[in-house]
Amino acid sequence: MTTLHISTNKADLDVPLIHQFISEQSTWAIGMPLPVLERAIDNSLCFGAYLDGRQIGFARVVTDCATFANLVDVFVLPEFRGRGYSKQLMETVLAHPDLQGLRRFTLATGDAHGLYEKFGFTPPSRPTTLMERYFPNIYAN
C-alpha cells in the first residue's frame, strides 16, 4: 500500500489541479479565477496530500497563527475517497505547530459534518454572535 505524504511546501502544490477541482467540481467556489486561487494560496497555510508524487488532496487554512484559523478548500479527488485520506489530511492540519493554542478554529461545510465532528468541530456554541457577509455566486460571472 502506498503511503500518503502531506506537505505544507507550496512549491509542491499542483496549482492547475487544485484550480480545476475548486473552480469546476467544488460546491463552494465554482468559477473561481486562477489569479484569485493563487492569491489565496500565497496568503494561507496550505496542505497538499500526495500519493507517489501525485497530488490527490488539498486543504487551506487562513490564520493569524496565534488566535484564529478558518479551514477552507478541503478536498480529496473523487477517485481516492473512501480510503481514509481525508482523515489523515485533517490529522496533519490539526497537528501543525502554527495551529496550536488557537482560541477559535472555524470551517463551513455542506456535506462533511461527520468527518469534522470526529476532530472536535461542532455547530457554533453561540450562533447568535456570529455574522457574515456571504456571496456564494461571486465567481459566476
TrEMBL record:
**InterPro entries registered for this protein in UniProt:** Acetyltransferase_Butenolide, Acyl_CoA_acyltransferase, GNAT_dom
Q: Which UniProt keywords apply?
A: Transferase
Q: Please report the stretch or stretches of sequence annotated as the N-acetyltransferase domain.
A: 4-141
Lineage, top-rank taxon, reads: Bacteria
Which residue ranges does UniProt annotate as crossing the membrane?
none
* Protein's UniProt keywords contain Transferase: yes
> SUPFAM superfamilies per the record?
Acyl-CoA N-acyltransferases (Nat)
Single GO molecular function: acyltransferase activity, transferring groups other than amino-acyl groups
Name of this protein: GNAT family N-acetyltransferase
According to its UniProt entry, this protein's organism is Rugamonas rivuli
